[in-house]
């Protein structure tokens, strides 16, 4: 388990820090039965495949790259089969403040499951969650957080878990934005995904978030098929009883698809290095280095959260989406850094006029 | 590791039994520098997408199914995104006699690596391999076999391993057929893969064989992209030294993608149940049951090795590709069984006139 322990610790420790902001901002999620349909992207003007990107060097760099590597007469031409584009999810394709949205899911699950677990009233870390008692929850540490994840993500079949996620994502709302979480995807990134696919790139999500938390809705929201959604995972086991096969989710870590785990996940699921990768934090640095090692000309994109009005502004010192070491390396190596404030006309699809 | 131990034992024990036939039939592989290009399939007549299948109930069942589920006016219509087709490799897409071809690779690797491992001359199980000493090799048991696999498949980077496999597959020859291994794929199955893709099915390999043993050549041979090739795997670890990222292959089992491991692999890599699955042995039974559990109408295909003249004839008692319990279940449940002798006009692409 050597490969997993380090990223897992980093991941969980990071979460413990940010959990501090969690319960204070938690509000009751409202039930909404008529799910809004989120378009994969707004119609694209023929003249401009990236209409929500301001004209400037970032947009130009992206389009110059795509035009160069898809031009058969270019020395930098990349065959279609090698046009692999990988994107982080939290903070790159959708927001991640005040905490990774999957943690609102976990907290909501503890509360929803509490009736079937009367013992949780007196058992940590669940007691603290149920009582919104942050100081006590913090004292449970990494072990307590892992207990919450496993209690809310394991123990059910894969089919059951998918139904639970679908129900939650259709009804839950972001505590500050008062919108469904899937409304909080970035319009410019939806356009970028589409633009790459129009140019025969295969788009993948490579996220620290749970693979089976993302797959139930990523297809519709991002236009990325389930088998191209890569994330952290727990182990599973196949059972066959009374002629019925099921796969159960076990309370054991499989892959932590963050930091060093991202190239490992890319190798496992894709089997070739990306030529285009997008991220927003230090957790994506290894993926971008892996992309940079491609023999084909590659494009490394960092989304910088610079917009305190329309989204959130944070980087080096933020416990969620820490962008520090990677910000230095991106600058040193001349990777592209998109400023949300300066490069994006709108942030969310619902802002498009 | 509970989920992996059982399939691993079954897999290795099966291999130990068949290893008996290995060294007796081994011949020196010849070097061939000009790799032949293997067409994904012969051109398909507009009137008949499966020209190498004899007209009969098997071919009709396949085509009736595809026509029904792709007809938007049918009650059995399946949306494109759910058209997942999974195929075993050994014995389903290419031959597997006298032993899984990957084992010829492992044996060849032991011999190729022997110069760098002078200690192997006096160390089992390598000594037995180098001396073609079958009785002694058999006595090394499961542990010895695992040692051979790990010594030949781990310890190098993923890039290095890919180059080794590419070199071997381009030069090695089957000991009896005297052909490159990639010539020994089944022409009717190439046509079936193409036919499904023409009807917007996404085709996957789900094999007990090594994922990184298949990916270097499956794309060209089967027209299946690397990220749709699923197989058994070992763990990997990411390293970053002197500004260069590499992924190393570790001597630790990750997934044994056989029997109970096949639905687990399908869930991990694809995230939805197949609607079409093809196999040839008891090792595929769990995959076909998983497919049969799909809410959409599904198609379960077994390839039965009935042709002792053109290929090999074996089923219930064969240690490679044992087709016993699954043969009974396929008959009971009315799954489709293709007889190589009766249903296939030709076996290999080079036989097509």
Description:
The structure is a homodimer of 353-residue chains. In chain A, 39% of the residues lie in helices and 15% in strands. In chain A, strands 4-3-2-1-5-6-7 form a seven-stranded mixed β-sheet, sandwiched between helices. Chain A is globular. Chain A contains 14 helices and seven strands. With 353 residues, chain A is of the alpha/beta class. Chain A folds into two domains: 6-22 and 99-171, no CATH class; 44-98 and 180-351, Rossmann fold, CATH 3.40.50.1000. The termini of chain A are far apart. The first copy, chain A, has helices at residues 2-18, 22-25, 57-69, 101-113, 126-130, 134-139, 141-153, 158-171, 187-198, 211-222, 261-269, 285-292, 325-333, 340-343; strands at residues 84-87, 202-210, 229-241, 244-255, 276-279, 299-304, 336-339. The A-B interface holds A 2-3, 81, 158, 202, 204, 211-212, 215, 219, 225-229, 233, 235-238, 240, 244-245, 247, 250, 254, 260-261, 263-264, 267-272, 286, 289-290, 293 and B 2-3, 81, 158, 202, 204, 211-212, 215, 219, 225-229, 233, 235-238, 240, 244-245, 247, 250, 254, 260-261, 263-264, 267-272, 286, 289-290, 293.
């Amino acid at each position: 388990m050597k490969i997993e322990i380090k990223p897992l610790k980093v991941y969980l420790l990071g979460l413990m820090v940010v959990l501090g902001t969690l319960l204070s901002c938690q509000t009751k999620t409202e039930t909404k039965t008529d799910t809004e349909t989120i378009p994969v992207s707004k119609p694209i003007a023929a003249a401009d495949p990236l209409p929500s990107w301001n004209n400037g060097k970032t947009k130009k760099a992206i389009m110059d790259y795509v035009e160069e590597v898809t031009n058969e007469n270019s020395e930098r031409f990349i065959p279609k089969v090698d046009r692999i584009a990988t994107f982080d999810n939290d903070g790159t394709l959708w927001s991640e403040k005040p905490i990774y949205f999957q943690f609102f899911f976990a907290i909501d699950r503890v509360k929803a499951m509490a009736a079937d677990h009367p013992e949780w009233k007196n058992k940590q870390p669940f007691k603290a969650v149920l009582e919104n008692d942050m100081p006590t929850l913090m004292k449970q540490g990494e072990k307590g957080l892992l207990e919450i994840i496993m209690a809310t993500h394991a123990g059910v079949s894969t089919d059951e878990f998918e139904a639970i996620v679908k129900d939650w994502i259709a009804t839950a709302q972001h505590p500050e934005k008062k919108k469904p979480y899937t409304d909080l995807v970035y319009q410019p990134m939806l356009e970028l995904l589409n633009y790459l696919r129009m140019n025969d790139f295969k788009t993948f999500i490579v996220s620290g978030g749970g693979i089976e938390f993302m797959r139930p809705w990523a297809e519709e929201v991002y236009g990325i098929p389930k088998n191209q959604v890569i994330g952290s995972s727990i182990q599973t086991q196949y059972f066959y009883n009374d002629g019925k096969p099921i796969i159960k989710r076990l309370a054991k870590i499989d892959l932590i698809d963050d930091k060093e785990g991202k190239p490992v996940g890319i190798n496992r699921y894709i089997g070739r290095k990306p030529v285009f990768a997008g991220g927003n934090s230090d957790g994506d640095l290894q993926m971008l280095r892996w992309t940079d090692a491609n023999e084909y000309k590659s494009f490394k994109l960092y989304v910088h959260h610079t917009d305190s009005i329309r989204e959130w502004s944070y980087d080096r010192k933020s416990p969620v989406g820490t962008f520090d070491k990677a910000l230095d390396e991106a600058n040193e190596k001349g990777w592209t850094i998109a400023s949300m404030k300066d490069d994006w006309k709108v942030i969310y699809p619902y802002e498009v006029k």
